[in-house]
Amino acid sequence: MNYLILTMVFVSGFSIMTIELLGGRILAPYFGGSIYVWGSIITVFMLALSIGYLLGGRWSLHNANLRRYGSLFALSAVAILPMLLWGNDMMEAIFLRFTDPRYGSLIASTALFFIPTVIMGMIAPYSVRLLVQSRQSSGMTAGFLYFVSTLGSAAGTLATSFYLVLWFEMNHILIAVIAALMSAGIGAVLLSTTGKLQFND
Amino acid sequence: MINRTLVTILLALLAVPALQARIIHEERSLYRNIVVEDSRLLRCLKFTRVRANPLNQSCIIRNQPRKLVFDYSKLVMGSVLLKPRPENILVIGLGGGTIIKAFHELFPEAAITAVEIDPAVVAVAREYFDYQDGGGIHTVVADGRVFVKRALLQEEEYDYILLDAFNGDYIPEHLMTREFLQEVKALLTEDGLLVANTFSTSNLYDHESVTYASVFGDYYNLKFSDTVSNRVIFAAHKPLPAPASLADRVDQWQERLEPYDVPLKKVFRSIQDEPDWDPSARVLTDQYAPANLLRGN
Q1: pLDDT tens per residue, range A70-125
Q2: What is the secondary structure of B196-246 as a DSSP string?
Q3: Which residue of B has its CA nearest to A92?
Q4: Is residue A131 part of a domain?
């Protein structure tokens, strides 16, 4: 197994849940903290991940390589930026147009979280593609990747809800997530050009 | 020896009504457990079955429903000293509606808007605590923060705002931030009064205090010294007058507040305008709002 890929999968699992948990906080000033706000957030994350899995799998069919894999991380980091920079403006505009907080929170979740989560969803099947050696071991490889990725999600959930929100401001946590995804992405791209890591097509 | 026996008997007698408490309504709403309990003297709305913490209940005396039971409600009524004639009242957090009913009796001309997030609490207040809409009282089921934001958009104004949303075991963190208080302040008329029922214990006290100070500057802090109760805050746009200048009004109001069992002299004496918190505590903001975690620490 490739430690670089496993580390990156852990980072992406961690980041997804950190953003999902902060999502409740981000939406609360505009749409409240009710069960439907969480419903909106979880719906959007599930939907975005499902589409991400589909697209990531498709994209891995041709020319799968570490460079492209790294670019997914860099791209997801960039896709988180709008919620950091213009999140409040976007929510304010949505708050003005939609008076029902259920649909307001659903649309706001979509606007803020859908695109970055789709991109992060693409990472999972792409990792499987890069690591699978043979048909015989493919199930084991995929299972181990899910294990690491979901472990990352568990760690991200716990760390964010127990400690990070107690120590840091929300935007600082988001910046850290962006930095982690970006460095993972750039690291992978750099390593791919040095040719140290090769994946057979 | 006899004394001790007497005390034991007395304590046992006091415990009897508690033992006889009877649950007359129980439900699990979207937000919490709701229990309505009758004892010989009291009818209480509780948000938990086990702990009898005044923070998470609202009670009435069954044969004297006008009397306010808890210290914090009595402290809240002290606000008549600063705002003797409120016209447009906003209350965030309903509970059993006892304070709202008292306001309605004292100020029958005032329009009162009560905002409560939990429709089940509204239904229980109506069913078991004789709370009614109409005659100036208007109840809205909404999140307090969302209501305030919408009210600002519609350019509504209130000359009296009571924040009383923290009567559960869980604090709605988005209702305890600087940004929320700024929104509430913007909703307050130039001569309006903000009254907030908040926590007096735990680390949260310092954080909450500096958060109010960051928005309102100096404010009145009310706590009864002889009991562990809540802390009530009075704040406004302009600096509040020196508490001593309100002494005349105490005499004017004492009698009117008697039916509600408000010891106005004691309330007046409990007003403090000097900070008694750690000013270096971190202000709670939308970016940093771990109120529930801070409370536990």
Answers
A1: 999 999 999 999 999 999 999 999 999 999 999 999 999 999 999 999 999 999 99
A2: EEE--SSTHHHHHHHHHHHHHSS-EEE--TTS---EEEEE-SSPPPPGGGG
A3: B149
A4: yes
Amino acid at B136: G
Give the pLDDT confidence score for residue A201 in this predicted structure: 46
Structural domain for A98, as ranges: 16-194
Residue B14 included in any domain: no
Give the chain A residue whose CA is nearest to the CA of B152.
Answer: A96
Whether residues B105 and B153 share a domain: the answer is: yes
Q: Which of A105-119, B62-76, B178-192 has the lowest mean pLDDT?
A: B62-76
Q: What is the pTM of this model?
A: 0.89
Among the listed residues B71, B164, B169, B276, the single catalytic one is B164
* Residue bearing the bigger pLDDT, A201 or B56: B56
**What backbone torsions phi and psi does residue B278 show, to the nearest 5 degrees?**
-80, 110
Q: Would you say residue B8 lies in a domain?
A: no
Residue of A21, A22, A25, A168 for testing the chain B interface, max B β-carbons within 10 Å:
A25
Residues of B in contact with A166 (CB under 8 A): 290, 293-294
Domain membership of residue B1 (yes or no) is no
